[in-house]
């Protein structure tokens, strides 16, 4: 098992420090608290097996954004088709 700080864990998993702290407080991530230079430092115990479970729970933002972008693209595509049909109709009326 490897130990890493909250900041290092957040950078490695592309999470905010706040979200990592919430995971530590809720017990989703194993952690230890040590006294270093007169202050408490929380280290996360990094284990490959537990990391797989945690990665499954974390919903990547990129997937959500990709779905939203695809939905917006399809909506714009339908709108362009409707506008082209309207332009064709107007051309026929003018002629």
Order of helices and strands: EHHEEHH
Structural class: alpha+beta
Which stretches are poorly predicted, pLDDT < 50 over at least 5 residues? none
The average pLDDT value, as a whole number, equals 87
User: Got a strand count?
Assistant: 3
Cα radius of gyration in angstroms = 25 Å
Number of helices: 4
Distance between the termini: 78 Å
- Give a quick account of the main beta sheet: strands, pairing sense, barrel closure: 3 strands, antiparallel
Read across the widest sheet, the strand sequence of neighbours is 1-3-2
What is the percent of helical residues? 55-70%
Q: How much strand?
A: 15-25%
Shape: rod-shaped
Key traits:
3 strands; 95 residues; alpha+beta; three-stranded antiparallel beta sheet; 65% helix
What report would you give on this structure?
The chain is an alpha+beta fold. It has a three-stranded antiparallel β-sheet. A hairpin with a 2-residue loop joins strand 2 and strand 3. The longest helix is centred in the C-terminal third of the chain and has 34 residues.
In short:
With 95 residues, the protein is of the alpha+beta class. Helix content is 65%, strand content 19%. The protein has helices at residues 6-13, 17-26, 48-57, 61-94; strands at 2-5, 31-36, 39-46.
What's the SSE blueprint?
Elements: E1 2-5, H1 6-13, H2 17-26, E2 31-36, E3 39-46, H3 48-57, H4 61-94
Antiparallel strand pairs: 1-3, 2-3
Helix pairs in contact: 1-2
